[in-house]
Amino acid sequence: MKFIFTCISVLIACSSLAQNLSVTGKVVDSLQQPIEYANVVALDPETKSIVSFSISNTEGKFKLQLIEGKEYTLKVSFVGYKTFEQNFTPSQEMSENIMIQLAFAPEYLNEVQVVQEMPVMMSGDTLIYKAEAFTDGRERKLEDVIGKLPGMEIDENGEVSVQGEKVNKVLVDGKQFFDGDTKMATKNIPANAVDKIQVLKDYNEVAPMNGMRGEDNLALNIQLKADKKNILFGDLTAGLGPDTRYLGHANLFYYSPKLNLNLIADANNIGDRAFTIQDYFRFNGGLANFTANSGTDINISNESLGFLMADKENARDLSTQLGAFNFTYNPSKKWNHTGFTIASHSNNEFGSKSVRTYLREGVDNTELLVSRLNASNQSGLLKYSSTYTPNINTHIQYAAFGKINTLESVNNRISQFTASENIITELDRQYSYSIDQQLMAYHTIDEKNILSLETNFKHNLQSPEFNVASQDNLFPNLLNMDADSMYQLFQNKEIKSNHLLGEANYYRILTKKNHLNFSAGFNYLKQTMTSALRSSEGEISSEVPNQKFYNNLNYQLGNVYSGISLKSKLGNFTIKPGVFFHHYNLSNFQSEFLAEQQINLILPSFYGKWELSSTQSLSFRYTTKAEFADIQKLAEGIVLTDYNGLFNGNRFLENGIYHSGNINYNYFNFFAGMNMYANLSLVSKMNDFGNQISFEGMERINNVVNLEQVNESFQSQLGVDKKFHLFRVNASANFNGYKNYSYVNESLNRNQSFNQDYKAAIQTTFYKQVKVEAGYHFQLNSYESDLADNSFVNQKPYVKLDWNLLKNFDFTSDYYYNAYINQGTNTSSTYKIWNATLRYRKESEPWDFSISAYNLLDTKGVRRDSFNENLISTYEYFIQKRYFMLAIKYDL
């Protein structure tokens, strides 16, 4: 804390040495009416480079940060008006209320040159940035360009926000790049290829559906420079370091009017994840979930989600390989073909020590666990779609998306519980694949009537295996295993799912601002599951005689529904109330017993948005959903989930009803240089699925039941970004918590969690060469139940430096300090991470040389914590040791 405050004080003191003025004014037309989105720039009269830039707000106001007494060229432009240009020298007497009047010139409306000269312009609902007006040539990837654009933010995962609203898709020259995935675009597209960036509001690639669904959808269109078209461009990177460290990366791009090709390849063992397992689960291939708003949610479990996610801060060793290819082909104006394939492989090594406190009554409830885990992951994604648009009124699209994933881990553990020690080996294998096909058709009959038809078929197979070998007897009260050697259990499962969905919509346009939407659809799910447990005593393997450890069941869920909604725009207000009528048929056959159920439900929804101004909005969304369990929660046969954990489902589970509300506020002010957002989400779950946990010593059996109590959760975010003279300050606060219930040894247990996450940072640049960012990150995670009460505190101050040395050298460094406290056990730890890179690149040359160092202080491990209704855990993960890397990059 003292370190961060000292840095901030020094930066503020240094800034006061410069004689900066805030020059304010107003842009109006000949009728003295304010002009919004006018570009106001101050140029250096000699170099013609932009020194300060502003965009007029709804009142026509602008603000420039300039040095008193220095001469500038003031230039103001807006499409359809003559450009104002005049030299001036700012002073205290003339720094406020400068009035600039632009003369209307309709002959300029079609001149491309005007658009090219303006750093930012507004064309209808499209906001356009000229990239070179905000960059200095040192940017490497698209993410570096986006981070410098006013009103835009990008996080470390490549997710982009514009004026506080999340970007859903990224296009390149109007065509999807890896199906619009923002991370693949921001992390790989070269910065020197970017000409303009367009912000497309209410984006919909289906022309007949523009404005029909009423959903906020934001997209970026990256326009390439003219010299990057019809040629192959990109970059190649290769690096080596001691201890056989290596890095190889390639980005290759080809763009032409009819054919676009993109190739990304990466291989390294330094922990840089070009494509993570989180990306694999997040990547849905772009197949639209058109039934999402109807109110039915089927929670299909994914076995692979239980695998530990690898990154630099929890893996001791991490090597990855990636190959990705994307194409778009337009043989004619009517046909469009696009697709991609992504293949990735990783090998990870984890090491950890943890203290686990089991939430049960009794003195002996703490376990010390040492783990060494090796994990490998192989995954593949394949997508193809074809679109036929014979005219502007008709849109037909077919898409197919496939995923395949193989995960394997070997975990060697030493468990100390009470006075005993147990040696455990776990082998976990997960194999899964899915095929998803979709056919969609949209047609505008006339200006008053629109039809749509959407169908989707999904096939999924999961085949997980879990084997555990233990020095001690496993589950002695359920399994009669008696041997002098290692005890072993082999659990296998196979789950097949077929999911068919369809929905038809008729839109009746009442007026330009009002329309009705009539919907009818069906949702059919069929699942089968088999599982068995085998045991081994010594070298003899046999099936467990207890029939409670077997599953063979069939589950079907049928749903037909209809609904109606009204979308209406009343001035600055947009509302969309709706209601859906559902009929469900459920059948569950297992153990020679058939259970059937029929349910009728009415599920309402509401969406509203208040556009206070073009840069300020407040939206509200309320939905009601019926949540249904998938086959794994219904299977009553016991399944082995951990070396000390078992699970069995409940065939008589009923559906839950979830009420959720979301309020979202966004505000952006070019004049004040401020971006602010706030949102709040509340979820109330009635008849929810809850755990019924039975402990015996350290071993536990989890069952699932419908709860009479209401489970509740909330999530809230607040954020502000403000520019001052030489500084940019941003701060955010995230809050999330829940209150849910579970049964522990037949006693009702209330679990409450409240997590607080605060971030603050300040950035400044000295002499246009040294960029410094200092920040502070504070986390407080609290957990309370009838059996435990604990809190964890993390404090993370950091400093980042980007220094343009001499002319061709660039030095970057980041330093993180972490102080961790477990308040329940009164234990604490600290660790520090310091990374640095020195890069050399001569202007106008394609070569780039760098030397990098990671973990210069050779930190051995980091702390983490987690909690749920079963246990509270505090981990220490061992991380990669210090390494160095020499890399060479070549721009094609």
UniProtKB/TrEMBL annotation:
Signal sequence annotation: 1-18
SUPFAM superfamilies per UniProt: Carboxypeptidase regulatory domain-like, Porins
Keywords: Receptor, Signal
Pfam families, per database record: CarbopepD_reg_2 (PF13715)
Gene3D superfamilies: Carboxypeptidase-like, regulatory domain, TonB-dependent receptor, plug domain
Key word Transport present: no
Record-given protein name: TonB-dependent receptor
Source species: Marivirga lumbricoides
